[in-house]
């Protein structure tokens, strides 16, 4: 059930011929993940408009998130929270972010990364709208 070596999912170092192994029935089933991915060169990627849109979105998203996080305690104190409650809110938000990142990292092994990124950004937008 636990696959923690590349050999467990059929991967081998470059130059080493792959030798089929006798595996149990449950280990022989390979997950159907990211079957739509292609191999791209850096030049081809840099010519795509989607690359630059994604980069602009990620840079903007990081800037806005960093700005909000750095000013969140002061804002919460301005609206009436105690300094301890404001700091605790930022701590809980940071812990929830770590747990969410680890959770989405585990889901990448089972689902398409394209769909997961879309879900993650949708959750982020909903959270920003609520805030």
Question: What can you tell me about this protein's structure?
Answer:
This protein is mainly α and 131 residues long. The chain has one domain (36-130). The protein is built from five helices and no strands. Helix 3 (49-78) packs antiparallel against helix 4. The longest helix is centred in the middle third of the chain and has 30 residues, at 49-78. The two termini are 40 Å apart.
Overall number of domains = 1
Gyration radius, in Å: 21 Å
Structural class by secondary-structure content: mainly alpha
Q: Helix content range of the residues, please?
A: 55-70%
Mean pLDDT: 81
Which oligomerization state do the chains in this entry correspond to?
Answer: single chain
Report the β-strand fraction as a percent range: under 5%
List the helices and strands in order.
HHHHH
What is shown here, in short?
This protein is mainly α. The chain is built from five helices and no strands. It has helices at 25-28, 42-46, 49-78, 83-107, 113-130.
Can you give keywords for this protein?
5 helices; 131 residues; mainly alpha
Set out the fold topology.
Layout: H1 25-28, H2 42-46, H3 49-78, H4 83-107, H5 113-130
């Amino acid at each position: 059930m636990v696959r923690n070596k590349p050999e467990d999912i059929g991967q081998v170092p470059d130059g080493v011929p792959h030798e089929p192994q006798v595996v149990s029935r449950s280990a022989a089933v390979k997950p159907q993940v990211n079957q739509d991915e292609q191999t791209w060169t850096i030049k081809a990627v840099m010519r795509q408009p989607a690359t630059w849109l994604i980069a602009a979105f990620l840079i903007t998203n990081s800037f806005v998130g960093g700005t909000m996080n750095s000013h969140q305690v002061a804002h919460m104190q301005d609206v009436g929270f105690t300094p301890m409650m404001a700091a605790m809110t930022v701590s809980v938000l940071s812990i929830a972010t770590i747990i969410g990142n680890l959770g989405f990292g585990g889901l990448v092994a089972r689902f398409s990364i394209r769909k997961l990124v879309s879900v993650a950004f949708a959750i982020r937008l909903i959270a920003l709208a609520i805030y």
